[in-house]
Design a protein that fits this description.
PPIase_dom_sf; 4-stranded antiparallel β-sheet; peptidyl-prolyl cis-trans isomerase activity; alpha+beta; Ubiquitin Ligase Nedd4, Chain: W; about 240 residues; rotamase; about 20% strand; 3-stranded antiparallel β-sheet; 12 strands; Peptidyl-prolyl cis-trans isomerase; PPIase_PpiC; Chitinase A, domain 3
């Protein structure tokens, strides 16, 4: 690194800094949180960049720019964000595998804290991105069970409850929502087994043929502001709000 263009350890800051709100790169189950990174920094050079700024005396009076944040994910996995769905997902850059549910071996308690701190945010899209003719926008609260297509979630690495137990749980949520005690969105943030929980259950805009048929039929039958009864799909049991 010493002697390469624009890279110094003699006290001069590295060129071409740009401010970013958050950078997360998975390294052995951690994420790197950084307030500033060089423009167009290739991912494979990130660790070299960390070493570079660590030896740079231009930052002696400042707290470390980069800190490790536990994600709870197994080594090699990281959290990314889907722009099309406006939702977080899990990705392994070595195997190129991506999934909506956390991989096996995830520490779900640690993941809950990480997601709450770094992947919670507003659900609205001021520019209306995703809206189109024939599309609707819905939120939902999902409770999975052991017969679900993927019986795991960011809340639990292995879901063992029966379908009947899941329905009873959802009935309790439904009663609280109908009574006005809590909104579906607020409840989804802590109780939904879908990754959309971090967006208050928001699924964005979707049209016919984009969701499971049972979910689609129930969602399109709702009027704006209306909440469905319990909807059963291969994913689990849902409450849907249009």
């Amino acid at each position: 690194m010493p002697g390469t263009k624009n890279n110094t350890c003699d006290g001069s800051p590295k060129k071409a800094y740009r401010e970013v709100a958050l950078v997360t790169i998975g390294v052995h189950g951690h994420s790197l949180i950084d307030d500033s990174v060089p423009q167009e920094l290739p991912r494979q050079l990130l660790l070299a960049f960390i070493l570079l700024i660590s030896c740079n005396p231009a930052y002696p009076e400042k707290p470390p720019l980069i800190k490790l944040v536990e994600t709870g994910l197994p080594a090699g996995w990281e959290v990314r964000h889907s722009n099309s769905k406006n939702l977080p997902y899990y990705f392994n850059p070595m195997t190129k595998e991506s999934r909506w549910e956390p991989p096996s071996g995830t520490d779900t308690d640690t993941l809950k804290v990480y997601m709450a701190n770094y992947h919670s945010g507003p659900t609205s899209r001021p520019d209306g991105t995703g809206q189109g003719e024939g599309k609707i926008r819905c939120s939902h609260l999902l409770v999975k069970h052991k017969e679900s297509r993927r019986p795991s979630s960011w809340r639990e690495s292995e879901i063992t409850r029966s379908k009947e137990e899941a329905i009873e749980i959802l009935r309790g949520h439904e009663a609280r929502i109908k009574s006005g005690e809590v909104s579906l969105g607020d409840l989804a943030m802590s109780e939904s087994d879908c990754s959309s929980a971090r967006k208050r259950g928001d699924l964005g805009f979707f049209g016919r043929g984009e969701m499971q048929k049972e979910f689609e039929d129930a969602a399109f039958a709702l009027q704006p502001g209306q909440v469905s009864g319990i909807v059963d799909t291969a994913s689990g049991v849902h409450l849907i709000e249009r």
